[in-house]
Amino acid sequence: MPDSEPLRRILQQVESAKAELDAYGPSCIDWYRRAVAVVNTFVPWLVQEAPGLRLYVEEVLSSPVQLREAWVAIHPRIDAPAEVARIHELLDHEQILLEFIAGDTVSIVVTRHLLAHFPGGALAGNSKSDYPDLFLKTSDYSRLPVRTRLTKEIGAAVRGLKRRPVRVPDGLEIKTSRNNASIDCHYPHVGLHLIVAFARTEGRTVIDDVLAAFLCRADYRITKRKTEATTVKASFGRTQFISLL
Can you give the pTM of this predicted structure? Predict the structure, then answer.
């Protein structure tokens, strides 16, 4: 697939979401135009970055296994029984933590890589509870309302001392999919999404694919509440996504 093909297809997805973007508040911001601009900025860069991102994530998340392999090779040559025993003990303790490596861990590694490699350091990140995960520092969000704990409406806003934009459709949301599983989230979010698909075998992480798509609300499956106390869940699969590798 030529490098221009993912961009072309994702711009088509933005076009399909135009009505939803035009209706997205506040009306003083042309979200469709901003979504087109952000896709034109992000997608060619992500296509270029995807192979390096794949290698980096695999190396970081597989490094504990590689460290243990190196330790097995060198520790017989170390004449310090007490110290060797202590390192064995610490590695055993660490292994307990490593068993819980999941999507959140992969997302953190992906986010760190993208923040470090985006030209000019022009990317910024949101908190774990907000979306999108990444946004362009150069984008103007000064016309957005300030979101507080008392704000009941769900929509685009800025929050916190740094006035970070939340619930805006012109950022980048990062998701992971383990063993081709569908992706769960708390709320359907129109915007550009990046999926890093992975599998773990014997402590090693293998990245199966890096994919992107511009999703609209219709791409989500929304669960129905059984009671008012039940949390609404949204999920989506990989049908709309285009491989960047």
Answer: 0.83
